[in-house]
Amino acid sequence: MGNPLSPVIANFYMEKFESIALESAVLKPKIWYRYVDDTFVIWNHGLDSLHFFFLKHLNNIHPNIQFTMECEINGRLPFLDILISKTDSLNLSFSVYRKPTHTDRYLNKLSNHHPCQKIGVIKALFDRAKKVSDPTHLDEELQHLRMSLQANGYSLLEINKVFSSKPKQLREKLPHLGMVFLPYIGGVTDKIGRILERNNIKTIFIPTKKISEFLRSPKDPLDPLTASGVYKILCSCGLVYIGTTKRSFLTRRKEHMRFCRLNQPEKSAIAEHALNNLSHDILFDNMKILSRTSNFYR
Questions:
Q1: Cα separation of 30 and 49, whole Å?
Q2: Per-residue pLDDT tens for 7-19?
Q3: Given a cut of 80, is residue 298 above it in pLDDT?
Q4: What is the pLDDT of residues 213-254, one digit of tens each?
């Protein structure tokens, strides 16, 4: 999770998986569409065979790949963010699907973000509505978006302006000479961004400190020895060694102990002191942390 290669690898595997599953199935679906690990299936062999044969068949191919199944209810079935419905003429109708837990909370108008990012939120929701909803559901979806966006602080004038804007014609642009990331400070960094843009340098605006950064974490504190920074280790003679590490304190302490054990004074000043003074005890268990930081150079 979080690795950009994950969806690609998952797709490779699932493509092989589905080819094995469909070729070896005694009864096959009429329609099988897949997006990564979500499938949309039309089954015309009866509900019992779907549950007791096909689903069981899929889950017997590999013990770590187990499918769950959701069947249509009252002629409606959600797939990804689309709600697919049967019409009286047995055609399919499409509208935007939201989970029951969806809160309609989007980037608030009062948030300290660049205006183009806020307009981007409205535009993305509008574009999704146009692409997903068919004509019979589009007006209903747009009305829902107007109410939701107004609840998030946007004016009806701003919303309608984006909704009624025409797509811009794509013009050939020169490749950017570079890219800069600036914290968004209204009236300051946006002006800098315009100057950079005139010089063909792309500007990405990032928010300043978030509220969560001012609050303590609700999670239990981690073992301090898993952090990095500046530490000190005492000797029984009273001398003190002060060192820095960009890995964890725990890893660095184990290294010092190993250098002492393997008689490698050239790798550690602690090992050098201990081997030159065999009657001294290095108090590794009393290691003190002077400063924790994830920035080694600081």
A1: 14
A2: 899 899 999 999 9
A3: no
A4: 788 777 766 667 778 889 999 999 999 999 998 888 889 999
The rounded distance, in Å, linking the Cα atoms of 198 and 200 is 5
Distances (CA, A) of 19 to 22, 29, 45, 120, 145: 5, 13, 20, 39, 40
Q: Longest Cα pair distance anywhere in the chain, in angstroms?
A: 93
The b/e string for 212-242 (b: 16+ C-beta within 10 A; e otherwise) is eeeeeeeeeeeeeeebbbebebbbeeeeebe
- b/e burial code for range 257-290 (CB count within 10 A of at least 16 → b): bebbeeeeeeebebbebbeeeeeeebeeeebeee
Alpha carbons 82 and 96: distance in angstroms, whole number: 5
pLDDT of residue 221: 62
CA atoms within 13 A on the CB side of 276: 10
- Return all residues near 261 (Cβ < 8 A) that are at least 6 apart: none
